[in-house]
């Protein structure tokens, strides 16, 4: 049940960011749910592999290269999905930063409700 709530909160964050960022478009809330699922799958499967493969450059940049990996995952989700559009790397980087911030904010509110 917690996974479904987190996916719905991520979908809400995707819709909100698509409204405010000029280079991000989502066809509807159903597409946002699919984006949340695809991002969860890519983050669970592909991101650990990319982190291990790029460990030297990540250490060299003191972890900032992880932002590039997150932006690449956003762009990869854009390629997979038809109802989700991100116009360029810098928009994907900004989208990933803001999405991470919104997710942490929403998930912390979810954790406060449990206590």
Question: Layout of helices and strands, plus pairs?
Answer:
Elements (H helix, E strand, L loop, with lengths): L1 H19 L3 E3 L2 H25 L1 H6 L4 H16 L3 E3 L2 H26 L1
Antiparallel strand pairs: 1-2
Helix pairs in contact: 1-2, 1-5, 2-4, 4-5
Short description:
By secondary structure, this protein is mainly alpha-helical.
Describe the protein's architecture and organization.
The chain has about 120 residues and is mainly alpha-helical. Helices cover about 80% and strands about 5% of the residues. It is built from five helices and two strands. A two-stranded antiparallel sheet has the order 1-2. The relative contact order is 0.17. This is Putative membrane protein.
Task: Give the mean pLDDT.
Answer: 92
Spatially, the strands of the biggest sheet line up as 1-2
For the biggest sheet, the summary is: 2 strands, antiparallel
* Low-confidence sequence ranges: none
Gross morphology: globular
Domains counted in the coordinates: how many? 1
Q: Helix tally? A: 5
Provide the structure class: mainly alpha
């Amino acid at each position: 049940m917690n996974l479904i709530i987190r996916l719905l909160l991520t979908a809400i964050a995707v819709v909100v960011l698509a409204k405010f960022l000029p280079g991000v478009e989502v066809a509807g809330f159903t597409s946002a749910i699919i984006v949340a699922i695809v991002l969860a799958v890519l983050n669970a499967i592909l991101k650990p592999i990319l982190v291990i493969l790029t460990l030297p450059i990540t250490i060299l940049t003191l972890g900032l290269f992880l932002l590039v990996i997150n932006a690449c995952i956003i762009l990869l989700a854009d390629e997979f999905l038809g109802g989700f559009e991100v116009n360029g790397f810098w928009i994907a980087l900004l989208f990933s930063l803001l999405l991470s911030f919104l997710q942490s904010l929403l998930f912390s509110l979810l954790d406060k409700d449990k206590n």
